[in-house]
TrEMBL record:
<dbReference type="InterPro" id="IPR004130">
    <property type="entry name" value="Gpn"/>
</dbReference>
<keyword id="KW-0378">Hydrolase</keyword>
<protein>
    <submittedName>
        <fullName>ATP-binding protein</fullName>
    </submittedName>
</protein>
<dbReference type="Pfam" id="PF03029">
    <property type="entry name" value="ATP_bind_1"/>
</dbReference>
<dbReference type="GO" id="GO:0005525">
    <property type="term" value="F:GTP binding"/>
</dbReference>
<keyword id="KW-0342">GTP-binding</keyword>
<keyword id="KW-0067">ATP-binding</keyword>
<dbReference type="GO" id="GO:0016787">
    <property type="term" value="F:hydrolase activity"/>
</dbReference>
<dbReference type="GO" id="GO:0005524">
    <property type="term" value="F:ATP binding"/>
</dbReference>
<dbReference type="InterPro" id="IPR027417">
    <property type="entry name" value="P-loop_NTPase"/>
</dbReference>
<dbReference type="InterPro" id="IPR052705">
    <property type="entry name" value="Gliding_Motility_GTPase"/>
</dbReference>
<keyword id="KW-0547">Nucleotide-binding</keyword>
<comment type="similarity">
    <text>Belongs to the GPN-loop GTPase family.</text>
</comment>
Length: 207
């Protein structure tokens, strides 16, 4: 059977094709603990229809996934999220969202291959779920910025207190964001690009 002639066949949508002017592509990973908004961010900012691997949470996760503070969550990413955004006519970012549960962290090795940097999403209601995430990035030597996701009713803290709680160096950018808002998501990605640029232009210390 020639599937190309089938009425059900559909090629790439015109809006999903890579801009002809694009000359550079950068891989960025969106990370964070379970339920901090990674899938929402990718979906909000992507200029193409995002790929998600969300599955309905089942009894298999009871006693394994900590739902404290996010009891209303019914779906979870089991592999990755994928999206794309053009920063300008030449630069395109490919976004890969990681699964948050530790039992899926074995997938991180492949997702981090070739990544230039990462965005860490932080939920101030449950900061502890991001401790190990930041530790793994630091072990891998992956540059990152932190986005403090604005969940409704979440407590707000001074940046200095958040840095102390996360044991973050002052050089690591920390920005308020709303994973539901496209402009806010774009701002944090731009902050990551600026941070990566500064790291490439810092003069080496004299020997």
């Amino acid at each position: 059977m020639d599937y190309r002639s089938s009425e059900s066949y559909a090629g790439p949508r015109s809006e999903d094709t890579l801009p002809a002017t694009a000359t550079a592509a950068v891989k960025v990973v969106i990370v964070g603990g379970f339920g901090v908004g990674k899938t929402t961010l990718v979906g909000s900012v992507s200029e193409i229809r995002p790929l998600t691997t969300e599955e309905t949470m089942t009894q298999a996760g009871v006693g394994v996934d900590d739902l404290a503070g996010i009891e209303q969550k019914t779906e979870t990413t089991v592999a990755m999220d994928f999206g794309r955004i053009s920063i300008n006519d030449q630069l395109v970012l490919y976004l890969f969202g990681t699964p948050g549960q530790e039992r899926f962290w074995f997938l991180w090795n492949g997702l981090f291959e070739g990544a230039l940097g990462a965005v860490v999403l932080l939920d101030t209601r449950r900061m502890e779920v991001s401790y190990d995430v930041i530790g793994r990035l630091e072990e891998r030597g992956v540059p990152f910025v932190v986005g403090v996701n604005a969940f409704p009713g979440a407590p707000r803290y001074p940046v200095s207190e958040l840095r102390a709680a996360m044991d973050l160096d002052d050089s690591v950018p920390m920005i308020d964001c709303d994973a539901r808002d496209r402009a806010s998501c774009r701002d944090i990605l731009m902050a990551l690009m600026r941070y990566l640029y500064t790291l490439t232009t810092v003069s080496p210390e004299p020997q």
